[in-house]
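Risk register update: the risk of archive-format incompatibility is retired. Evidence:
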Amino acid sequence: MYVDFHTHGKLAKYLPFSVPYTNWLLTQARQSGLDAICLTEHFNTQQFDLLYRCIATHGTPQGDCYVWDGLKVFPGMETDIAEGGHILSLGPMEAILELNQSLEPYKAKGHFLPFEKLMDLFDQYPVLVGGGHPFREGGYIPQLPPEQLARLDFLDLNGKDIAQDRARTEARTYTLGQQLQRPVVAGSDTHQAVQYGCIRTHFEADFDTFAQLKEEMDGGRYTICVHDEAAFKVSTATLLKRALKEIHALGGDYVSILLQTGDQESPAVLAAKGA
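Archived output:
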């Protein structure tokens, strides 16, 4: 079972939610060879609740995930911390939505919660918590107190960072994982479908609950696969993302331009658009 632990459902946090764009992302994720993704949208993205309610309403519930045209979607969230850095949380849909509401006062820069207080909040919910791209510039996660870092469940070996410097990213992330005795799993960090598959986690077992995910992850029954052209996939996705954002800034409809393929829309997106 191939899983991507760090993905996004929108092109950018300050752009409106688009059902066709999200459907395109999820469809492309499945076509790229993924069996499941953790949807870890930014906690302060516009219309966070609409994105997740769409997944919950029009995906088929299965365990803790929602199946969207064959792809298992596990709910999650990516949250900024005051010290600098991003924290991933994975859990049941209602837990993620409630957490997002609880974080409403802390969504603006300068108001982010410190790591310890964020973890105190997460402790109240059945979520798994990971350190997102811990060594990315501007982050502070590795410098947090060891007793606080020990509260993490996993670390994110991030596709964007792998594309920039694979050897350094792997060495530093795995070393921190060994120090904390926490598993390291892979996430592409994509907002745009070309980036899917740059890195992914291959589990021996198939599962659809967070309890099973944690058991397999903690047991080390997985391998991480880095694509031979990971750097090219990430750079291409970055260029396309920049172009699509510019189209939007100029008043154009980037979704229509992107999806002018003549393909029939999937049953999932047709149902969502009719909601």
